[in-house]
Structures are given as C-alpha cells and as structure tokens.
Amino acid sequence: MHVLGGKKVLLGITAGIAAYKTANLVRLFIKSGAEVKVIMTPASKDFITPLTLSTLSKNPVHSTFYEKEAENELWNNHVDLGLWADIMLIAPATANTLSKMTDGTCDNLLLATYLSAKCPVYFAPAMDLDMYQHPSTKKSLATLQDFGNILIPATSGELASGLIGEGRMAEPKDIVAFIENDFLSKLPLRGKKILITAGPTYEAIDPVRFIGNHSSGKMGFEIAKTAADLGAEVFLIAGPSHQKVTHSFIDRINVKSAQEMYDACHQYYKNVDVAILAAAVADYRPKNIATQKIKKKDAALVIELEPTKDILKSLGQEKTTQLLVGFALETNNEIENAKSKIVKKNLDLIILNSLQDKGAGFATDTNKITIIDADFNQKPFELKSKKEVSVDIINEILKRVL
After folding, report:
1. Which site among 3, 113, 287, 364 is 20 to 30 Å from 321 CA-CA?
2. H-type alpha helices, 195-330
3. Model-level pTM?
4. Do domains 8-186 and 193-399 have the same CATH topology?
5. Catalytic residue IDs
6. Which residues pair with 39 in a beta bridge?
C-alpha cells in the first residue's frame, strides 16, 4: 500500500490546456490506492471530457450544482463533497481560478467545494510565463499559501504558447510524489521504528499436534496498521494468524513457536524505538517433542512441560533507549498483577485487559483496556473496537516518544 492508499482525493480541474494531463493524474492516484472524485469547471470540459475522467475514477464527474437525470434534478452538494475528501487538489489551477480562490468568489461548484473543504488543499498552477510572473498572480500564490493551502510549484519548459519558461504545470507523477512526500513529512511517527508482536504461538507435541491458545492476532495487527498509518516503520512479528496486512510500511515476520518469536524479537529489538508485545506467547511447551504422531491409547497421556523463555522480561533486561510496552490479560487481581509485571519486566507501559470484561480478550472485534505506566498511573478506557483501542494505545506512546 502506498502513502495515499485508502485516502479520498477530490480533484478539481479548471480550464487550462494542462487539463489533458489529469487523465494520467487520476490513473496514478487510483494506482496508489486512493479513491478519486472529480469536479470540473464548466469551461474545463473543452479540454478533457467528463466521460474519460469518470471512466478512470470509477465515479461520476461533477461540474454544476444541478444535474438532470431522467425527469429529476439532482443536487450536487458542495459541502458533502468538501467534507468527503482527505485531500483536495486543484490541477491545473489557472490564473482566473487562483484569483477567485483568493477573493472568495464562489461562482461554480469547484469554488464552492473549495470554500467548504476541511482537508489539506493542494494547488498546481498552470499558465503562460507572463501570466505566472504577473504581480496579481504572485499575490494570489502568496495569499493562498497564507490561507494554509499548499503550492505545488509550476515548472519551466515549453508552454502551449510556444514560449519556453516558468508556468508549466508539474507532471502528474511529480504531483503525486509531492503530495506523498508532504504527507509523509507530517506524519508524527515518521522516522520511528516499532517492533510489534501479535497472535498466538504453537508449541509442537508431535508432527500434527500442538499446544496453543485462542488469540486471533487482531489487536496486534490493528496496532501495527495504526502505527504504519502514522508513518512508523513496523516490524510485525506474527504467530499463526489469519489476519491480513497490506501496508508498505509493515514488514511481517511469520513465526510459530515461542522460541522463534524470542529469536525474531531479539534480532530487531536493538534497532527500534518502541517495542509493543501484544502476542499471546505460550508460557509452557512440551519438554520432549515426539518425532512420530502419538497414537491414541486407552491409558491417560502425560506430557511433561517446561517453561518457555520470557520474551518481554528478556527485552526489559536489554532495554537501553527503547520504549517497552507489554500486555497483561488477567482473570483476577488484575491491577496488582499488571503492576507486578511492570516492575519485574522493566516496562514503560502495560496494557491491561481482563477476561472478566464482556467483549474483551481473544477472538473478539472489541477490547476494553486500562493503560498503566511505570509510576502506576492508570488510564481506563471504555469498551471500543480494536481499531479504536489501537489508536488509544498509539496516542499514549506518542506522548512519550515525540
């Protein structure tokens, strides 16, 4: 997944010759995983057809406040369009439109939507070199940036007039790269490396049987997604799980046993800023693993177990500058048990959840947590989706790593 994956991009097209490039621009946004809607000024349709852009974006293209469909008139709500978008891009942005944006003129659907947008607004000017250098255009560019809009500078090259100079709209691939880089630079976890464990471990009894638990890995995977969405480079060490992850910032390392998870954690731990151990690691494993399938007998079967290595404690012993976060799933005496783990394992935070709480624990889509820090300060949260819980956890971490 790219930086723009899952983002909603509203592309505004004005009446400049560079409008012909917007077909490729839409295609690149779609290829990056974004959803695209297009608004055109009426005059821009002289340069590229709505049909082309609708086909590429897989969404209707809007250009007027009202559209006729059979006997009905449909209202294109500029407020809804502005609120829908995660990003608004006006490209090409002509001198005429720049001036109207500056003055708050609202004489078409695109400008009305711009004035309603709550998201970051990017604009890519395109005009002839004398127009681009004109004092009124320079004033518009400066004013729009003062408003908080983000300029994607025009480049130099051959213009539609035949002249060569500044005023050429940035190429579509450079516009997409500009927006991606701008998004990345503003992500709070950009440059941070985070190790996250998730899921169960399986401890072999024989070639076909194992000791495991009911952990689905959902909580750890949601934490990984949230951290990656905020710019972190994530090393997700996952036990056997059906959960999927598709994010270019997440490196998934698959393991099965507690020993494999231990080895993987120690391989990455020294180079990370934060470690969040959300996996449900087996506390015991069979001391002797049968090389052949154990046959069923009438007599009772006794399997001798031995403790697995305590991954969290071992990382706490090696901790230097890392923020170390553990999980505690308890059934009784929850708070005191969690506090004890903080001390014994040298943790900075522990995420406590109790099987006594309905909707918390394994194999659910919800969780109810209490975050406890090394000073035993407690912060309880209500029952929420695991996605929302992951945001609460990452927000607490952000307070400590920024």
Report:
1. 3
2. 218-229, 258-269, 311-318
3. 0.79
4. yes
5. 213
6. 12, 62
Find residue 13's DSSP bridge partners: 40
Q: What crossing angle do the helices spanning 109-116 and 95-103 adopt, rounded to 10°?
A: 50
Q: Residue 296 has what DSSP assignment?
A: P
Neighbouring-strand partners of residue 165: 157
Question: Which residue ranges make up the annotated binding site?
Answer: 283, 293, 327, 341, 345
- Identity of the residue numbered 346: N
pLDDT tens for the chain, 402 residues: list them: 468 888 999 999 999 999 999 999 999 999 999 999 999 999 999 999 999 999 999 999 998 876 665 455 566 677 788 899 999 999 999 999 999 999 999 999 999 999 999 999 999 999 999 999 999 999 999 999 999 999 999 998 887 878 788 889 999 999 999 999 999 889 999 999 999 999 999 999 999 999 999 899 999 999 999 999 999 999 999 999 999 988 889 999 999 999 999 999 999 999 999 999 999 999 999 999 999 999 988 889 899 999 999 999 999 999 999 999 999 988 788 899 999 999 999 999 999 987 777 766 666 889 999 999 999 999 999 999 999 999 999 999 999 987
**Domain map (residue ranges) of the chain:** 8-186, 193-399
Task: Fill in the amino acid letter for 66.
Answer: Y
Residues tagged in the binding site annotation for CTP: 283, 293, 327, 341, 345
Cα–Cα distance measured from residue 318 to residue 360, given in angstroms and rounded to the nearest whole number = 31
* Torsion sign (Cα): 22, 23, 26, 31: negative
Q: Which residues on adjacent β-strands are paired with residue 74?
A: 67
193-399: CATH, from 3.30.1330.10, 3.40.50.10300, 1.10.3210.10, 3.40.50.150: 3.40.50.10300
Buried b (16+ CB within 10 A) or exposed e, 282-301: beebbeeeeeeeeeeeeeee
Q: How far apart are CA 292 and CA 294, in angstroms?
A: 6
- Say if residue 273 is exposed, middle or buried (CB neighbours under 10 Å; 0-12, 13-18, 19+): middle
The CATH architecture that domain 8-186 belongs to is 3-Layer(aba) Sandwich (3.40)
Among 284, 270, 371, CA closest to 317: 270
